[in-house]
Amino acid sequence: MSLLVDIRHRLGALDLEISFRAPGGVTALFGRSGTGKTTVINAVAGLLTPESGRIELDGEPVFDTRSDLSVPTHKRRVGYVFQDGRLFPHLSVRQNLTYGERFARAKPRASLAEVSELLGISDLLERRPGGLSGGEKQRVAIGRALLSRPRILLMDEPLAALDSARKAEILPFLERLRDHTDIPILYVSHSVAEIARLATTVVVLEGGSVARSGPAEHVLSDPGMVRQIGVRDAGAVLPATITRHHNDGLTELSVSGGRLFLPEMDTAPGTATRVRILAHDVILSRALPQGLSALNILSATILALRDGDGPGVIVQMQCGEDRLLARITRRSADVMALQPGDHIHAVIKSVSIARTDVGAG
Amino acid sequence: MSLLVDIRHRLGALDLEISFRAPGGVTALFGRSGTGKTTVINAVAGLLTPESGRIELDGEPVFDTRSDLSVPTHKRRVGYVFQDGRLFPHLSVRQNLTYGERFARAKPRASLAEVSELLGISDLLERRPGGLSGGEKQRVAIGRALLSRPRILLMDEPLAALDSARKAEILPFLERLRDHTDIPILYVSHSVAEIARLATTVVVLEGGSVARSGPAEHVLSDPGMVRQIGVRDAGAVLPATITRHHNDGLTELSVSGGRLFLPEMDTAPGTATRVRILAHDVILSRALPQGLSALNILSATILALRDGDGPGVIVQMQCGEDRLLARITRRSADVMALQPGDHIHAVIKSVSIARTDVGAG
Amino acid sequence: ETPVTVFAAASLKSALDELAATYADPVHISYGGSSTLARQIQHGAPADLFISANAAWMDVLEQDGLIVAASRRTLLTNRLVLIAGPDVDPDLTIEPGFDLAAALGQDHLAMALIDAVPAGIYGAAALRSLGVWEQVAHRVAQTDNVRAALMLVVLGEAPYGVVYATDAEASPDVRVVGMFPEGSHPPIRYPAAPITGANPAPAQAFLDFLLTPEAGEVFQKHGFGLPGDGA
Amino acid sequence: MSDWLGPAEWQALALSLWVSFFATLLSLPFGVFIAYALARWQFRGKHILNVLVHLPLILPPVVTGYLLLLTFGRQGAIGSWLYDNFGVILAFRWTGAVLAAAIMAFPLMVRSLRLAIEAVDPKLEQAAATLGAPRLWVFVTVTLPLILPGLIAGSVLAFAKAMGEFGATITFVSNIPGQTQTLPSAIYAFLQVPGGEGSALRLVVVSVVVAMGALLASEWLARRAVQRIAGS
Amino acid sequence: MSDWLGPAEWQALALSLWVSFFATLLSLPFGVFIAYALARWQFRGKHILNVLVHLPLILPPVVTGYLLLLTFGRQGAIGSWLYDNFGVILAFRWTGAVLAAAIMAFPLMVRSLRLAIEAVDPKLEQAAATLGAPRLWVFVTVTLPLILPGLIAGSVLAFAKAMGEFGATITFVSNIPGQTQTLPSAIYAFLQVPGGEGSALRLVVVSVVVAMGALLASEWLARRAVQRIAGS
Ligand SMILES: Nc1ncnc2c1ncn2[C@@H]1O[C@H](COP(=O)(O)OP(=O)(O)OP(=O)(O)O)[C@@H](O)[C@H]1O
Ligand SMILES: Nc1ncnc2c1ncn2[C@@H]1O[C@H](COP(=O)(O)OP(=O)(O)OP(=O)(O)O)[C@@H](O)[C@H]1O
Ligand code: MOO
Ligand SMILES: [Mg+2]
Ligand SMILES: [Mg+2]
């Protein structure tokens, strides 16, 4: 299961030239407003015909200007979850969900009942979209796309219109989707938190072309990406394994550089997962700190210090096999005389690792 | 300049019974979706007629069921900034801005030129709303409301539709408005960060009635409000005074409990301001920590510990004359054997105090 | 019994309806303007018998070979009258040069279209031959059929009108000022003829019935003249 | 009320209802197709098509009737072709009255439908395409249900117009009782008779009542369709 | 082309243009008011008003003309009142032709306007009220400019319909060359005489060309108005 995009297209003042390969899992398209994310997704869906290039789904070309091929949308078998839901207002939830069924080449991998269960919409089947909350609508849209047995799921800011409570409601479903089906997902979002939680691959667009692409861990932990990602969202993503659930509500995880405590997770011990540690949530200490309320302290070696725009400095560290980022003031860096190669302790408040930043992967 | 609202109204399943008094400055209406915030604002504007009650602007009643009074909207002189802008699409920006001018009882306090300058829209005057970005639109909407010389500004989630870059663009204008005009503002928002930055008074609505109201510092720092505000947004707001700008880009402030360092602020020394310290950004330490990259350490006395839903505990502290909140794990609280009355050090990363959380007031 | 389909000028409706009701076989009568009906017959309308208020259109059909020319008869004649409305006190005698213009004053003379509808054509001819046309031409209000002209007078919108004697006869609300002299306009004739190739026998039978003296009495009752009357 | 109208008048009423109903039904698929083309497609001759559709509105009805006679009469290009190939005769039949009424009501129907179609968000149609539905299926299952209120309004308007159509009908199919004599033709015939105004008025009242019922029913149906879409 | 039409025909054309123009202009304010009431207000008798507006569409035109004569004729209730109080005479005048054309075109205009008004977001009108603008001012400065495309479309449709109106006009104001002889009356007259078809066809072509021009102009104007609103 993979996607290849290699297209050129002119849109108003913007010259798009976009080329990337998405392996399985969730590939996030990330970039500022107007960099061409929706355009790429529409090209994959066949709703927009690029001027030239080639798009392959599972190795099978669906668009190729050299052989003058452009498979019409309804034959591409893409499941598109639009930002605005686009449920059919005149059909019940059940009818919306089964709309694509008759065109699916094979039986859907999961039945209507299973998908409704997965998405928590079993009780809504006989209602009409008009009466649903924003979060419910979006879950129905996801179920509808899934049940058409697509070869790929395209999601264009599926959560952007929702408030944070609704987002929190849907994110787990997207994780289950990623983990329990083998459908690749192309996911557009402005939210680093969402991407960190979901994406296996990140493609960063800038001004109509691909600025950087690669595994999520690498791209998001790259200090060179701080500008694109934004100072407050910069951070590192570390692979982790769940070791144990403690009965005071904490879950213990092991990362290559040590162990971490997180608020209770409902995943079984032994499960591989990822944690995200924001650069500004990390405090550095030369000595091993004592008597602090922070539970998580990792040992690390400084790799590099980079000045930011303001009074801050980004400190990149090696922590076990992983990279860690910290954002501290220039003054602290000077007072502590931090140098590449120094050994250091990274203090991380357990509760500052957001629940939404943890995902299986 | 003040507003009195005391209304009862039935809306579908919701029984509204809302009564509060807003002094000058910014009064924030805060509450979940569907608690009646828009309804209140519409009642003040005269776009909705409550079943009974009384609304006064500046001591003058504009609605009163006992005397059967309901001043029509266009005579109430409220400036309403709608969530969706609602600029007149067929008029230029200049025509939009001056639309209310002919009805203003007196010359606007500020001229078109001054307001445009304040809002940074002087260069857009001859354009039509269709071509403006979301942030520009919203600023024009604010200018339009201002120039109609209203007795009060009503703002219903004026920033909700904007991405964070646009929000950051507009917030300073709202602050200037609050600080440089004497028009009271009734402000609806879901965002605690926005409210903390702007509000002088906070009115918390819950299920159709006022759950809590009072000065922003008190309401937002109240550990009892953690549930309404949300765990990740809970924190304390402290009055502060700017003491000094250091040449490494840090600004020093004094709070009643000590001093704090923040990334450079462009406000003159001596200015009174407010800082917000999120509960989850505070680490507690028995001993005065040494060699940490965190610059801000305040001494405090524990007032109370409250259990949350998860493995967290909210620790309320007295810090000088102010209250401070910290959110730590139950486990840490136990290990450190925290008790009310204990002296403690609160470690706060300077960079974790967001720029948007600082405002003059 | 074979139903007969008759295409007849609309002005014949009251008389023909009465006669058809007494006829043994069913008769379907389609009433309309003579021009409309004639043109429809040209385009193959399922008419068996055509009764026109207008010889010109019957001539056209005869040239086209659409009627059984040998069976063409003049069924009826009619006269033109000058009528006055209910509130008008007419002091006029129809004679050459009579002062219709003065009687009209600023008001209108109601007539059917003077270039297109037979009643209008005849009326204009009569007024011309009496030498009054020039004075009244600009005060003529023309309607699309003669009934509408009558209605204008009935409603008092126009004080005077030129209509068929039959129309005036049937309308209690108008006063007949006078009849136009026979020679002042071409004779008004209602030709009738079976349509070629249609249903000649029943059509002929019905035409024969209309030509009987009993039928003639009915027509006369409605104000028509019979060709024998010296027209 | 059965005493109030004579048998010929009942017949005219029944025929008018019948003809108007069929005219509406007949023009509906064409109307939907042309309205869709005008609303959604760009093609050469679009303006011409638009004017052509509006023509019956612009021309005096008699002219439209005459043109119909020339085209669909038994000697007319299409009329003779229809007769030779299918044995179909339109002129002077109730079928012809249906055609005349349909043509006259067509511009009204197309305008209503066009506006309704323009109001349907093409994004919903795109969404259906991504689910694998071919164009025609999308049209039937998404577009059509969504334009239902406009379709009802347009149909009833066309029906009302058809009930009142006179000039084109009498010119094209004449005024043969029981065959082509519709309510308006009967009204016309009464107006030709001295003292027929009363009878004409009776028929006018009947047609107003029918059209009024249709309009009210349509408003009600359209509201229901809107509510159904808005959802409970 | 001046050879192609005779002087009387030129006169009929000029009069038709004039009458249609005035009919459109005259009905516009009423149309806007009634369309606004139907679109935005709830009141008793709304359904009746709606049916009343549609009546000229439903009734055979001759009947409408007859009713006009009864009401606005010199003996009619309103007609005599107009004459006694203002010296205004409609019967047999071009002014009457304007009235007839306006009434016949009215339903089409109101429908277009009503849809346009329903499409205006009441929130914009509310926004104007919060800025201190009284209702009428809001209507003139906000609603009206926003319905401009619909207003243009409705006006041109009404104009086209007025150009083709015959039955009601000739019944109400008859046919007085130079005063009330419009293009459709001239066409009708030609069709009554054997061999007049050619001349009738010439006039039909003229009226189609005029209406076509008006329709094309309206599509262009409406597009411009929409673009103006969308903004540069
Ligand atoms: N039809 C069009 N004509 C001209 N320019 C267009 C058109 N459609 C899109 N654009 C421009 O192309 C660029 C890319 O648009 P696109 O919608 O793909 O951006 P995006 O990355 O999805 O942005 P966002 O995050 O705001 O959704 C934008 O600058 C947009 O203004
Ligand atoms: N016309 C109406 N009929 C019935 N219920 C209504 C109506 N308008 C609003 N409501 C209900 O009244 C409640 C209050 O609505 P209101 O818009 O004031 O909420 P809000 O606090 O502004 O919410 P949000 O944060 O989502 O904007 C909601 O539950 C809403 O569903
Ligand atoms: O009988 Mo006519 O042909 O209507 O004047
Ligand atoms: Mg996009
Ligand atoms: Mg609201």
TrEMBL record, chains A, B:
Q: Name one Pfam family in it.
A: TOBE
Q: Which domain of life is it from?
A: Bacteria
Q: Identify the residues that the record assigns to the Mop domain, covering every copy.
A: 291-357
Read off the SUPFAM superfamilies from this record: MOP-like (SSF50331), P-loop containing nucleoside triphosphate hydrolases (SSF52540)
Statement: the UniProt record of this protein carries the keyword Translocase: yes
Coiled-coil residue spans:
none
Q: Which PANTHER family match?
A: ABC TRANSPORTER I FAMILY MEMBER 10
Protein name listed in UniProt: Molybdenum ABC transporter ATP-binding protein
TrEMBL record, chains D, E:
Instruction: Give a short account of what the protein does.
Output: Part of the binding-protein-dependent transport system for molybdenum; probably responsible for the translocation of the substrate across the membrane.
Q: What is this protein called?
A: Molybdenum transport system permease
Localization per record: Cell inner membrane; Cell membrane
What NCBIfam families does the record point to? modB_ABC (TIGR02141), PRK09421.1 (NF006939)
The gene coding this protein: modB
| Similarity comment | Belongs to the binding-protein-dependent transport system permease family. CysTW subfamily.
* UniProt-listed Pfam families: BPD_transp_1
Gene3D superfamilies in the cross-refs:
MetI-like
- The residue ranges crossing the membrane are 12-39, 51-73, 85-106, 136-160, 200-222
**Primary localization class, coarse:** membrane
InterPro entries reported in the protein's UniProt record: MetI-like, MetI-like_sf, ModB_ABC
| PROSITE patterns for the chain | ABC_TM1
| Location of the ABC transmembrane type-1 domain | 13-216
Q: Which UniProt keywords apply?
A: Cell inner membrane, Cell membrane, Membrane, Molybdenum, Transmembrane, Transmembrane helix, Transport
Q: Which domain of life is it from?
A: Bacteria
Q: How does it sit in the membrane?
A: Multi-pass membrane protein
What are the coiled-coil residue ranges? none
